[in-house]
Amino acid sequence: MPSRLHLRRLRRLAAFGAAAAAALALSGCGGSSDASTNAGGSGKSSGGGAKTQLTLVGYSTPKKAYDALTAGFAHSSAGKGVGFSSSFGASGAQSRAVDSGQPADVVAFSTTPDMTRLVKDKIVAAGWDANADKGFSSDSVVVFVVRKGNPKHITSWDQLIQKGTDVITPNPSTSGSARWNILAGYGAELKEGKSPAQALAYVKTLLTKNVSVQDSSASSALQTFTSGKGDVLLDYESDAIAAEKAGDKISYVIPKQTILIQTPIAVTAKASHPTQAKAFLQYQWSPAGQTIWAQQGYRPVLASVAKRFASKFPIPKQLFTIDSLGGWTKVKSEFFDPTTGSITKIEEAAGVPVASS
Hints:
Elements: H1 4-28, H2 31-35, E1 45-46, E2 52-59, H3 63-74, E3 82-89, H4 91-99, E4 106-108, H5 112-120, E5 136-147, E6 167-168, H6 176-191, H7 196-210, E7 211-213, H8 218-226, E8 232-236, H9 237-245, E9 250-253, E10 257-267, H10 274-284, H11 287-295, H12 303-308, E11 318-320, H13 328-336, H14 342-349
Parallel strand pairs: 2-3, 2-4, 6-7, 6-8, 10-11
Antiparallel strand pairs: 1-3, 4-10, 5-8, 5-9, 5-10
């Protein structure tokens, strides 16, 4: 009879294989059908009669937020006559697709390295982050999504590695959310006074002993959890808020120690309509746009709007940033390098498929 670990690995392989096939289908197709594909499985195109069509390529989680933002922009003076076709999926896969030629006027990712990949290949200008918000569209934090009422009373990172706790998180080789989740757990251990080696050992235990499924994206992982699998899901706060609003039988816990998620957005260097694309970015940074972000469960980066929604988004007691871990360049090399990264090696040893970084 196969061991529990073997069965868990088979489940991981099956989930990853299905997601990889979907990602290949997305990046392999071309033209308008590619631009109108989204994580929900059906084509999405707003403003079909618009004179100007912009293509938005983004990570999966904020699809509904971008639907609201593009609709709001269309009703603004700058957005009059502008429509959007959109593609949403795992952040790393979306970044690689654009890098391989998928058309995009606006790109929005979960992590900065997914943007810098395009900067390196001159698809996005080097000064994409030269504004007051450093190119970040909105913020979030890593939370614990649990069953309604939190029946297992899960409130701390240490509880996630207890025997019998089943954790769901995406695969860090494809998902930006997964990388944020891993870094949140690693940084939380540091905040508790653990050494880097001890913090990495914690992550290894979590991934190899307690995580049972690693889907390709945060959206897929949420679907796995809401379908009944797992005791706790590591996810964006915004995802948890949306799931509660949709009536899913979940609750969420903001742990004492967690990481600030900062998500980048930019106009591509070869945008077909750069003036309108830049106007959209300015709109989503405006009070109106940032209010939409907040209403959709994301922490506004505009201080005046953040102040209005302060009660909705409590500040965790020990909130830390990627910079406190050395910044994305260091973190990506140390943890997620496809050959030498410590997390990559942990995943490979556990039999989890890893994609190129």
